[in-house]
Amino acid sequence: MAATESGKKPKRDTYRHGDLRNALIRAGLELARTGGPEAVVLRAVTREAGVVPNAAYRHFADRAALLHVVSQAAIAQVARTMEAEQAALPPAADTTAAARARFRAVGTGYLRFAQEEPGLFRTAFHVPGDMTHAADDDAAGSSGKTPFELLGAALDGLVETGILPEDRRPGAEFLAWSAVHGLAVLLIDGPLRGLHPAQAHDAGQHVIDMIERGI
Description:
The protein is mostly helical. The chain has 2 domains: about 50 residues; about 140 residues, Tetracycline Repressor, domain 2. Helix 4 crosses helix 5, helix 4 packs antiparallel against helix 6 and helix 7 packs antiparallel against helix 8. The N terminus is likely disordered.
């Protein structure tokens, strides 16, 4: 889209079929990246997309609807970071070591995303007030799994290899998720936000150690 003489993006109120909704979501993600969920507002998103404000209402009933979809897209990015952490694992000596490494990579990837993309991380977990999003396809990564499902699969792997007793598997994802998410929040918005990246990484690994021992 060519710029006007003033340097501003020209407004347009039409998009090829199907493009506008995706353009608004992409704009919302960019705003969330720098400003968190508070920055995802309809007027700002339409301005970023180069359309008139009313155009957004063809796809989103209100700001809450837009923010929910942007939140789901951000959760999907969390999942892809966790998947990338698992994909980068070196070959393991055996299935037990592989299962443990995949479990640890889930937490490591989650914490890495929080530190590298704090605005998107805040947005990812800002909207839903329940667990209905935990298996939503829109919040899934390349594997088709959401962050919660990736954690569940990693825990199942620990059971299959005998690391985690089967009778201790129910509810283990809630304990693991609570511990890692709590640290993530402390690192980006709490008293630990001043830690050097190496210290933050070490803290994350210690928390994952604690989870391993605890479950």
